[in-house]
Amino acid sequence: MHASSSKPPGRESASCDVLVIGGGIIGLVTAWRSAQRGLRTAVADPAPGGGAAQVAAGMLAAVTELHYGEQDLLAINLASARRYPAFAAELTEASGQGIGYRACGTLAVALDADDRAHLRELHEFQQRSGLDSQWLSGRECRRLEPMLAPGVRGGVRVDGDHQTDPRRLARALLTACERAGVVFHRAEARRLTVEADRATGAELADGVRVAAAQTVLAAGSHSARLAGVPEHVVPPVRPVKGQVLRLRVPGPYAPFLSRTVRAVVRGGPVYLVPRENGELVLGATSEELGWDTTVTAGGVYELLRDAHELVPGITELPLVETLAGLRPASPDNAPLLGPTALPGLHTATGHHRNGVLLTPFTGDVMAEVLTGGALPAAALPFSPQRFQAPAPQEQPV
Q1: What is the pLDDT of residue 69?
Q2: What Å distances lie between residue 314 and 147, 254, 291, CA to CA?
């Protein structure tokens, strides 16, 4: 086993092939796959394994997360979902840790006539898109999930939308990286270094300068804040706040829910994700409030209120954790993957609500690009250069 290492302050590190800025699940899967390809890989992050994954619910919901106008995103979501069983098995073997992958399915339900009509339209859109989903009556929904409220009007059953535990996923990726020989610099990257119009690594908060042949900006919602990145290649990523609650089904427990259940209540989405260990994740708000990560009484109230309408027994469960995190969102809510217009600089960010789902796909894409391959065809619509203006030209004197 290779132990992770850190470089002492004040000394420039030895050069590496790939420096990944950001140690969330996207940065870690990029580093792990790069190291597996034989690249000398380093990660710069003061607390690797943290980030948005600590708050995410872990729904692998390619079908039930389908939105109008996102067919390109649907294609890679489905591709990544298909990778998950093999990815989970490989990562479990590489790390010696499970990631809580469960092929449990998802049930999306409607609580009133308007929501039922909207869900019907979504189901028809899923059918036109060639997706596997089944319309159920309210009675059929309650037969599947007896804890549902009597007022459920109908639902869509999707047996292919599963779940994993993002916290366990992050821990397993961290261990797999360490075992693969990835070097960890536990400090914040403060500035991208650029020489002769090429990215050459980064300067860290502890004074270390990491030189790299290729640099990957994978800092989640912070990806647009790194100093030294030329303006024309700064990724247009913003933070979107989400508040999440964790409840506990007292053990020894009978399953409270057998699958992920989700709905739109009064126009706001709510979901309940049951874990094997009796934890029940309830989320999530979506708030455009900049960098604020305060857990608010209003956010907790709204989530519990809406979940109670969906599953009345929810209010009898112990509330064990309240958290708020920041999703990295791009202008089109899709990721930015691959080379930027600045040679030597790549991005793997902007995954918004699909970061956990797209972890296997992102790792494969970035490893292909970093080993000299072209951006795979499926990832071409998600090149960061779709947002980048041409580099400014020097004016003749």
Answers
A1: 82
A2: 9, 14, 30
Low-confidence ranges of the chain (pLDDT < 70): 1-14, 253-254, 389-397
Task: Give tens-digit pLDDT for 55-66.
Answer: 999 999 999 988
Domain boundaries, the chain: 1-101+163-236+331-389, 102-162+239-329
Nearest Cα residue to 277 out of 248, 240, 234: 248
Contact between 155 and 133 under an 8 Å Cβ cutoff? The reply is: no
Could you give the CA distance from residue 367 to residue 162 in angstroms, rounded to a whole number? Answer: 25
Q: Hey, what CATH class is 102-162+239-329 in?
A: alpha beta
Its CATH architecture, for the domain 1-101+163-236+331-389, is 3-Layer(bba) Sandwich (3.50)
Q: Which of 383, 176, 226 is nearest to 215 (CA)?
A: 226
pTM flag (> 0.90): yes
- For residue 339, CA distances in Å to 344, 356, 374, 382 come to 8, 22, 9, 11
Q: What is the pLDDT of residue 388?
A: 77
What is the Cα–Cα distance from 208 to 19, expressed in whole angstroms? Answer: 13
By residue count, the chain amounts to 397
Calpha distance 216→338 (Å, rounded): 8
For residue 17, which of 367, 325, 354, 396 has the smallest C-alpha distance? 367
pLDDT, residue 61, reads: 94
- Give tens-digit pLDDT for 161-204: 999 999 999 999 999 999 999 999 999 999 999 999 999 999 99
Write the CA distances from 333 to 17, 175, 327, integer angstroms: 30, 30, 10
- CA–CA separation, 336 and 324 (whole Å): 24
